[in-house]
């Protein structure tokens, strides 16, 4: 890493309690086989962009959004097994190619409905293409508000 190596700031996509990605009950994410990141136990329905970047895709089932910035690719995954809800309980405000930042409301989620359907509400944010020299650094703390700066990748 040179003197001018770029840092990518990470923001809380939702208010709640931030935890290590290891703590999610979804083994695909907790094993970090898809990438490294963090999870939040949400206490709000509003979902904001965790990075400054561009929307690459919104899954048809609305439970996941792919975002790209600084040659890094990210996945924002809302809930566990929520793909089975076929978009029910999700309202998405953005589209492919939209530019977003930490103040962009991506959508809202009815987490009470998700719980009622027997699904977990973990909001998971991972970088899917970190190289060997890049590392996610999270700041200390647990209770966060949406758009709080929670760490960075360098």
TrEMBL record:
One of its GO terms (molecular function) is kinase activity. The keyword Transferase applies. Residues 26-129 form the PTS EIIA type-1 domain. GO terms for cellular component: cytoplasm. It comes from the Bacteria. Pfam families: PTS_EIIA_1 (PF00358). The keyword Transferase applies. Its main location: cytoplasm. Keywords: Kinase, Phosphotransferase system, Sugar transport, Transferase, Transport. GO terms for biological process: phosphoenolpyruvate-dependent sugar phosphotransferase system. It is found in: Cytoplasm. This is PTS EIIA type-1 domain-containing protein.
